[in-house]
């Protein structure tokens, strides 16, 4: 099993400066490689450059600029070039699929925040010895940086990444061969229905409330963004102290909401994994669910568009994204795998319209949070009915509908 660990770094002042220089130099390498691909396509009869060709030039680049590019790990620079190559592969894949292409863009100094080391021991070393109470990670060109290791690392460290978030630095370890930690069997199974009013509802009728972290912090975030907008747009080196504080406040509020959402997702997923051996959930395509409705042109009046419900759909999309269903389902899958639980995705079509008692399918069965079958008059909460049908669709054995 593969697992990632994220720990806070505690660098010294000089190490923090070196980490910033490492990010800037890797960003410069990324942008230079992107410019080379653009120039080759424009001026060399649409000739494309591959990763292998750019990787072969690294040796000459490091020899030409030893003060900047030559001081960092060769493998980490190759990983930066692979990141650009993956961006181009995704670009061509979207073109073939007929989607919006999204050509790879140049990265600003503040938009390049991660450096990857593909192998532990090659340019980096995770140093965790029992004799030393302080954990450190050694990075080429930076030194031994202290790590706030708040939990043990299991398995074999495969890759190491250094990430900047605001003024904080983190190290991310990806480990393989992590042993599973099976939980005691409970003999219970359930289906869950994701929602906006309630974050989720189980087939037993238990609700987990939606904390709405984004909505609760919306006013504070709006005030911070309004204050930031009062400052003229300037480059980072020309910003005043007040401008810098305004930027950091907006970033801190976004970071707070993200952490609150992650914390809630971890706790909700852990509670389900502890209580049930089998869990069925809807296979949701969230990207399609939050897509804006297409405009409706008025065929009689050119240049005029009819109402398409975009305003109300925008509110629903905001609520769906605030709930963080995708984050939760990803965490639930990881915890279920570690605890040796069975997780079953189910097609969500008609789960909220089907009567679990007689099987009648009709859109009129549901009215908001109320479900009443027009055929057999079965009355229940709509979210519980959805969760019940999800469990039945997964083939789980549930008690008879009351």
How would you describe the overall organization of this protein?
By secondary structure, the protein is α+β, with helices and mostly antiparallel strands. It has 2 domains: 3-176, no CATH class; 189-393, Nucleotidyltransferase, domain 5 (2-Layer Sandwich), CATH 3.30.420. Helix content is 41%, strand content 20%. It has 11 helices and 17 strands. It has helices spanning 13-43, 51-56, 58-64, 74-97, 213-216, 218-229, 241-275, 286-289, 310-323, 325-338, 382-393, and strands at residues 3-10, 114-117, 124-127, 135-139, 143-148, 156-165, 168-176, 189-194, 198-202, 207-209, 278-282, 296-297, 305-306, 342-346, 366-367, 370-372, 379-381. It has a 7-stranded antiparallel beta sheet. Strand 8 and strand 9 (198-202) form a beta hairpin. Helix 7 crosses helix 10. The chain is globular and about 80 Å long. The model has no long low-confidence stretch (mean pLDDT 91).
């Amino acid at each position: 099993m593969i697992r990632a660990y994220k720990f806070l770094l505690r660098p010294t002042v000089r190490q923090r400066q070196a980490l910033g220089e490492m990010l800037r130099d890797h960003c410069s390498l990324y942008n230079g490689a992107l410019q080379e691909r653009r120039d080759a396509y424009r001026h060399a009869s649409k000739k494309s450059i591959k990763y292998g060709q750019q990787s072969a030039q690294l040796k000459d680049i490091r020899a030409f600029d030893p003060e900047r590019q030559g001081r960092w790990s060769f493998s980490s620079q190759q990983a930066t070039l692979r990141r650009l190559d993956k961006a181009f592969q995704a670009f061509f894949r979207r073109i073939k699929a007929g989607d919006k292409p999204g050509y790879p863009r140049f990265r600003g100094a503040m938009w390049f925040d991660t450096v990857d080391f593909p192998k532990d021991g090659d340019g980096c070393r995770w140093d965790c010895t029992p004799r030393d109470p302080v954990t450190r990670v050694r990075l080429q060109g930076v030194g031994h940086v202290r790590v706030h290791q708040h939990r043990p690392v299991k398995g074999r460290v495969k890759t190491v990444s250094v990430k900047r978030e605001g003024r904080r630095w983190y190290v991310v370890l990806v480990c393989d061969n992590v042993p599973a930690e099976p939980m005691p069997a409970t003999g219970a199974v359930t289906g869950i229905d994701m929602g906006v009013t309630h974050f989720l509802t189980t087939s037993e009728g238990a609700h987990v409330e939606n904390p709405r972290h984004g909505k609760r912090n919306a006013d504070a975030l709006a005030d911070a963004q309004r204050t930031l907008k009062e400052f003229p747009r300037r480059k980072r080196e020309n910003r005043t102290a007040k401008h810098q504080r305004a930027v950091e406040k907006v970033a801190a509020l976004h970071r707070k909401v993200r952490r609150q959402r992650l914390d809630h997702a971890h706790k909700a997923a852990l509670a389900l994994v502890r209580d049930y051996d089998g869990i069925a959930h809807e296979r949701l395509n969230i990207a399609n669910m939050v897509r804006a409705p297409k405009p409706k042109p008025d065929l009689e009046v050119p240049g005029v568009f009819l109402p398409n419900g975009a305003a109300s759909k925008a509110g629903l999309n905001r609520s769906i994204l605030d709930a963080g269903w995708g984050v939760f389902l990803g965490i639930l899958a990881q915890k279920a795998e570690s605890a040796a639980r069975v997780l079953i995705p189910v097609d969500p079509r008609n789960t909220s319209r089907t009567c679990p008692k007689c099987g009648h399918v009709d859109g009129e069965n549901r009215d908001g949070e109320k479900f009443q079958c027009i055929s057999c008059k079965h009355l229940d909460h709509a979210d519980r009915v959805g969760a019940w049908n999800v469990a039945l669709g997964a083939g789980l054995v549930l008690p008879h509908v009351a």
